[in-house]
Structures are given as C-alpha cells and as structure tokens.
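Researcher: I'd like a candidate sequence for this fold, 312 residues long. If you have to choose between options at a position, lean toward the conservative one.
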C-alpha cells in the first residue's frame, strides 16, 4: 500500500554504490551503525526498506542523510501512523555551512505536504531541532517494588540461531498493545533493527537481553542493574503476572543467590502500574514533537513511554 509519505518522499533507490556511500556517512557519526545494519540484515531486516531518505550529494559523494520512517503506533487505543526522523547526519568536512539545514528542510517539507499532523524524533541535540519547530515531550519510567518471584520456565533467545529467530519473529507478529495510552504497532522490523543497534553499540550479546517464557508465551527484553530489573520491552498478547516475570528474570539475569528488589519499566504496561512511582525517563535521547501532537502525545497528555526498541 502506498502511504502519503511514499507519495512525497521516494523509497531508497536500488543503487548499491549510493547505499554503500551512505553507510560510510553513517559510520562517520556512529561507528556501530553500519555493522548493526549488516547484523539486522542477517536476521532478515532490510534497513533500506524501513526508511525514506533525503540524500544530498556533492559530486559522487553523499554528504547528508535524513531518514524518515513511518512509525505505526497505538495511541489511546487507535492505530496511528506518524513520520519520525532518524539518522540525521552530515559528513564531518561538510558541517557548519547549511547542508544539514537544507536536508532537514527537505524532509520536513515532504512530511508537511503528505499531511501528517505531527512528526517525531528522539535526540539528545534538542537545541538543534528546536530551530526546526520541534518541542521536547518528556517520557517517563515507572518503578515498582519487585514482588516475590514465582517459579517460571525461561530460555534465552539467540537471533543468530534460526529456531530462536523464528520464535522471536512469532512473538513480534502476535504481540498486542499492552497500554491504552501508547504502544508500538510495528510489525517487527524496527524492533530487530533496534536490537542490532543496541547490542552492537553496547557490546551486549542478544541472548543476555531476550528471555522467552514458554508458559506465558512472551518474550521479555530486560537487563539487570544491581538489584533493579530494567524492563526494556515485552512482547506478549497479554502481560504475564509480574511475579512470574520476576521469577524468570531472577533465574536468568540475577547473580547466583541474588534477587531483584525493584522493577523499572521503560515501556508502558497498564496492568502493572498500580502503586508505581513515576520517574523521568533516564535516556539521553529525548522525544521531540513537531506539529499538533495527537492524543496522549500532546504536551498536556499523561505520563508515557515508548520502548527503546520501538523508537527511531
Ligand atoms: C548535527 C548535524 C547534522 C548538523 O549539520 P550541519 O550541516 O553542520 O548543520 P547546518 O550548518 O545546516 O546548521 C543548521 C542549524 O542548526 C544549528 N546547529 C548545528 N549543529 C547544532 C548542534 N549540535 N546543536 C544546536 N544547533 C546546531 C546551526 O547553528 C544552524 O542554525 P541556523 O541555520 O538557525 O543558523 C551535523 O553536525 C552532524 O552530522 N553531526 C553528527 C550526527 C548528529 O549528531 N546528528 C544529529 C543528532 S541525531
């Protein structure tokens, strides 16, 4: 199906030299991004199919890239597509002379012409994007005391192992939104790309993050930080009891004999928020919105968070 975005911003040309040149450009800003893109390709995800690029060239060389991805979200219960900018970069020797402004203005003119009410991005360079009409919309995190762990079977998933990749893909296909406020409705490519980027940049092995709970038919994406269990994402048709999840994570992630005393939620799971303390999201990359933010994304909206694996 052709989206309004695709009518105003063409997809990636099938030009291998252009693609390779753009990977080099990404590498000049983020060393981990080109290897992560190749890693995700081995898992069946084509970076170039998930984004619409604005590319500026000088001679044969790509000197600027702004990617626009269409994010599919559940926003207050309704499925909503919103464009999101990503991988905004200019070659180091071309910076400071208006190239970035030109590429950003081209991308924003296209999303405006396509008629979307708002455009999103996540960045630590908020002052840069404020110049282009973006405003920061703070995200939150929720902290709950860890309940006593309940026994739960758990297996690590390794997406480099074909049966585990299929298990992960099945969980991505069948997952349902776990929040009525904000949840991703992405079919799975964005999750796998973010997994590749997260693991490559932080030198984390995917099986150290991905836990499969067969009795609950869900995949938990989580890390242990001392006695805090940090939940980054949860792929499920309905949330399992938090006790079972803590039980599985204690077996898989806590040091021998150790236990978690609190659970930090970086993704909204409505069923678990009773009595939770709301904190500011600790990520350096802040959500920014340009235009009229719909529903819960409005500045006056409720506390919200999107999984780091559902962002651009
Ligand atoms: C950020 C980046 C894309 C800017 O590209 P550039 O070609 O140097 O930018 P321009 O010269 O077109 O400047 C555009 C405007 O943004 C401003 N700007 C540039 N970098 C900025 C920064 N880091 N913080 C705040 N403002 C910035 C400029 O002053 C200019 O403002 P003006 O047009 O209102 O006078 C480039 O420095 C880059 O690729 N950095 C590495 C990757 C990165 O950090 N990407 C963005 C975060 S996702």
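Model: Candidate sequence:
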């Amino acid at each position: 199906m052709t989206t309004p975005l695709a009518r105003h911003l063409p997809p990636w040309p099938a030009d291998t030299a252009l693609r390779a040149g753009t990977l080099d450009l990404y590498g000049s800003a983020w060393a981990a991004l080109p290897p992560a893109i190749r890693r995700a390709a081995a898992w069946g995800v084509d970076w170039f199919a998930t984004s619409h690029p604005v590319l500026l060239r000088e001679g044969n060389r790509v000197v600027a890239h702004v990617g626009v991805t269409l994010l599919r979200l559940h926003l207050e219960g309704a499925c909503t597509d919103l464009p999101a900018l990503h991988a905004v970069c200019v070659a180091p020797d071309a910076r400071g002379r208006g190239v970035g402004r030109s590429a950003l203005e081209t991308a924003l003119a296209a999303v405006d012409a396509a008629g979307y009410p708002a455009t999103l991005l996540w960045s630590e360079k908020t002052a840069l994007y404020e110049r282009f009409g973006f405003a920061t919309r703070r995200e939150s995190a929720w902290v709950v005391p860890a309940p006593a762990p309940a026994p739960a079977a758990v297996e690590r998933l390794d997406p480099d192992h074909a049966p585990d990749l299929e298990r992960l893909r099945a969980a991505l296909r069948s997952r349902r939104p776990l929040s009525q406020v904000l949840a991703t409705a992405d079919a799975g490519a964005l999750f796998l790309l973010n997994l590749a980027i997260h693991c490559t940049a932080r030198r984390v092995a995917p099986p150290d993050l991905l836990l499969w709970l067969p009795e609950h038919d869900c995949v938990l994406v989580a890390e242990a930080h001392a006695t805090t269990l940090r939940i980054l994402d949860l792929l499920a048709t309905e949330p399992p009891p938090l006790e079972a999840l803590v039980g599985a994570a204690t077996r898989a992630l806590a040091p021998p004999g150790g236990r978690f005393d609190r659970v930090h939620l970086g993704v909204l799971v409505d069923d678990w928020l009773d009595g939770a303390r709301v904190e500011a999201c600790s990520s350096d990359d802040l959500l920014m919105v340009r235009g009229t933010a719909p529903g819960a994304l409005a500045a006056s909206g409720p506390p919200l968070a999107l999984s780091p694996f559902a962002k651009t």
